[in-house]
Specification:
The structure holds 2 protein chains of 2 kinds. Chain A is mainly alpha-helical. In chain A, 45% of the residues lie in helices and 0% in strands. Chain B has a single domain, classed as Purple Acid Phosphatase, chain A, domain 2 (4-Layer Sandwich). The chains are: A mainly alpha, B alpha/beta. The interface between A and B is medium-sized, with 20 and 22 residues.
């Protein structure tokens, strides 16, 4: 569904509520010339009224879809799908400073997905990350792996991955195989 | 200078190394113009001496790229012990430890101590992780050093300078020297004759190899400006775990292999980091470097050898 569709005037009622005069469009002039009723037209209702009713139903559906999308946006990630197996290979490079089960130059990674940043009690985090107030999910990890210093200036980490697919693969590895 | 023999650097290994890495070249500086010849034609001259560079031993690293960094550092020390003419000293260009733990430094020093040579260290970013480990590093290695751990010494007419470029990392992890160290360097070099051979060593390369990976030093141009009047400047670095060299005016730059694990060449991988190589091949990717100085004319012959 094209996003621009949401920007069309939705209904005559909506126009009335907004204090707008009734719209006499070319559509109406044309539709008023039509006399034959079509399926879906209620008794006493002309083609234009039926058209508006369909638009209103459509508008309601769009509003519902938007609400569902907004709800899902809290958990869904719009970036590329990650390949955990490829991510495991890419994770070799992360091992300059990280491992799954042992704190290293950086903190251990097992269980990092869904964890609050700077929350391991036995790792000495930078003040920058301690005050960043982040929960690690696809979106926050993607930003972090793009440029950690942009997320938390003064953080210990400088390592970054420029390719969105590389980042998605490493994130999939951490999510699926480093539970 | 290099004879056929068992162990250590025999001619065959040297040729192999030269072919593979493009090293084994003697740089002669005459009238400010460097010319090169093969190391085999270099002859030991009176007043010459050698030293060995080891780098990036990462004691404490125990992951698939090298499950036993202690064993490979030990193999590097064996190479030093097999050098026919005893080196005057060692330099270690940083990442002595992997996580700056006291026990890792203890182990590294014990292993390197088998060489029974003076060792001059420069810190890596794995040796100084934060203010606490910086203080611990300076407490252990910084005796006689200035400020943040930089120092100079002389040997056989060559002036050596050890720099610290790992404390205030810049974009993507680029090294930096900082104004205090640069000011000290300028003062240290002032008054020395242009003909004094200079050897500068630090962990992160002092030339821009791959800024997107942090493989360079943000303010190195200023340091190199102070060095431009000298006829022979050799810059020795670590950090990137592979051999690279470059000549710029009178300055030759060399990066060293690690004794722990290789890293990818820039542009061949999405990011820097430990590179997994086939089992049994690891020691081909690791190495030590011998540098032989001959005074007349001033030459520094650099030879890299792997740990096989």
């Amino acid at each position: 569904m094209g996003l621009l569709r949401l920007l069309q005037p939705l209904s005559r009622e909506a126009g009335r509520e907004a204090g707008l005069p009734p719209r006499l469009s070319r559509e109406r002039e044309e539709s008023s010339r039509l006399s034959a009723k079509k399926p879906g037209e209620a008794a006493g209702e002309g083609p234009y009224e039926a058209f508006l009713r369909r638009q209103e139903k459509y508008a309601a559906a769009v509003v519902l879809a938007c609400a569902i999308s907004a709800a899902l946006a809290k958990t869904a990630w719009a970036g590329p799908a990650g390949d955990a197996a490829r991510g495991e290979t890419l994770y070799e490079a992360c091992q300059d400073c990280h491992s799954l089960d042992k704190n290293d130059v950086g903190p251990r990674h097992r269980g990092v997905f869904g964890r609050k940043a700077a929350s391991l009690p036995d790792y000495d985090y930078s003040d920058a990350l301690k005050s960043a107030n982040i929960v690690w999910n696809e979106e926050t990890l993607d930003k972090w792996l793009t440029d950690p210093q942009a997320v938390a200036p003064g953080a210990k980490m400088f390592f970054h991955l420029d390719s969105p697919q590389d980042r998605a693969d490493v994130i999939a590895y951490l999510k699926e195989r480093a539970k | 200078m290099i004879d056929e023999r068992d162990g250590g650097l025999d001619r065959r290994q040297t040729l192999k190394c030269m072919l593979w890495a493009g090293t084994g070249v003697v740089w002669t500086v005459a009238g400010g113009v460097p010319s090169s010849r093969l190391i085999g034609s270099a002859k030991a001259a009176e007043g010459s001496f050698s030293f060995v560079q080891i780098s990036d031993s990462h004691i404490g690293f125990e992951k698939p790229a090298n499950p036993d960094a202690r064993a490979t550092l030990s193999a590097a020390v064996d190479k030093v012990l097999a050098t026919p003419d005893k080196p005057a000293f060692l330099i270690h260009t940083g990442d002595i430890s992997h996580t700056a733990k006291p026990g890792e430094f203890d182990d590294a020093l014990q292993l390197i101590g088998r060489a029974k040579l003076d060792v001059h260290y420069a810190p890596g970013e794995h040796d100084i992780l934060d203010p606490k480990t910086r203080d611990a590093y300076l407490e252990r290695f910084g005796k006689g050093a200035t400020g943040g751990g930089w120092y100079a010494f002389d040997q056989g007419g060559v002036h050596f300078v050890s720099l610290n470029n790992v404390v205030d990392l810049k974009k993507n992890g680029l090294g930096s020297l900082g104004p205090e160290q640069l000011e000290w360097l300028e003062g240290d070099l002032k008054g020395r004759t242009d003909s004094t051979p200079i050897v500068i060593f630090s962990h992160i390369p002092l030339w821009m190899i791959a800024p997107e990976w942090g493989w360079g030093t943000e303010d190195s141009a200023q340091a190199l400006g102070y060095l431009s009047r000298f006829g022979s400047v050799t810059v020795l670095n670590g950090h990137i775990h592979q051999l690279m060299q470059k000549v710029e005016g009178n300055v030759t730059f060399h990066t060293a292999r690690s004794t722990a694990f290789p890293q990818p060449a820039p542009g061949t991988a999405p990011a820097p980091g430990p590179k997994l190589v086939p089992a049994g091949e690891l020691r081909k990717w690791l190495g030590v470097r011998e540098v032989v100085y001959s005074p007349s004319p001033a030459t520094l012959a650099v030879t890299d050898t792997d740990l096989t």
